[in-house]
Amino acid sequence: MGAVTATLLDGKATRDEIFEDLKTRVSALAARGVVPGLGTVLVGDDPASAAYVRGKHSDCAKVGITSIARQLPGDIGQAELDATIDELNTNPECTGYIVQLPLPKQLDENSALERIDPSKDADGLHPVNLGRLVLGTPAPLPCTPRGILHLLRRYDVPIAGANVVVVGRGITVGRSIGLLFTRRSENATVTLCHTGTRDLAAEVRRADIVVAAAGVPGLITPEMVKPGAAVVDVGVSRTEDGLRGDVAPGVDEVAGWLSPNPGGVGPLTRAFLLTNVVERAERIAADLASTPS
Ligand SMILES: Nc1nc2c(c(=O)[nH]1)N[C@@H](CN(C=O)c1ccc(C(=O)N[C@@H](CCC(=O)O)C(=O)O)cc1)CN2
Hints:
One of its GO terms (biological process) is tetrahydrofolate interconversion. By secondary structure, the chain is α/β, with parallel strands linked by helices.
């Protein structure tokens, strides 16, 4: 084994910094009579999804956000899911909410995401909000991409002018992160790779920043990484050996920075979910203050 060269990007420490800031902002909101509330819709009993949702509510308790949990059986039809979404759309205690993904196969994920009131879309995955991201107008940003950018900035990874290679075209990361990296404020150049990419190794090798979000254990090997590059491991798979990321062992001996998995981007996904909820509550408080009584 060679020596580790990479600086590890510590997602938990960075999350704790964000939580400290959120606690202060939630207290300031309370003084103005506004209490942020996060809703979650969990369908079925997938243990991983249930654990992620529990984690979101335990984060809420840490920063003073109200939790509104909706749990539905795994065999429901679209109409029952729609009814729960409609209820949260009109629930005044719910400032923002998410539908936990993936949904059971009989349900239409895109239709569920579209039904969410865009102003309550805490995941930033509603088509209106993704469209606003394309237009460059303010919108809640998707949580994992926002977390990745925050983590890279926090550790001074150069982004402007960087060649970024994203591996994976899923809705929560791959498809939206290019929109963030190519904003004028970031100015990176992005290549989005997927299962149809002809020579993945060649694409990854020329990247200054690699975002691995394919959900294929050990996909990114040390030989594929340019020495000194930043590698962000987002994908997660449950294997017989436990949780495995998309990045193979040994990459930390080639990379300049490594966001590990676990302990990298995951905690920030949760932190930016709460940030989106608090930001919505701050907009509500500002609207109340500017409305004549
Ligand atoms: N509606 C959504 N569904 C899903 C999202 C999402 O952002 N919105 N992302 C993932 C799951 N997810 C949040 O929902 C999530 C996954 C992982 C983590 C995390 O903190 N992981 C830890 C490790 C946890 C473990 O040991 O199991 C880490 O990386 O350190 C947070 C959130 C799919 N669905």
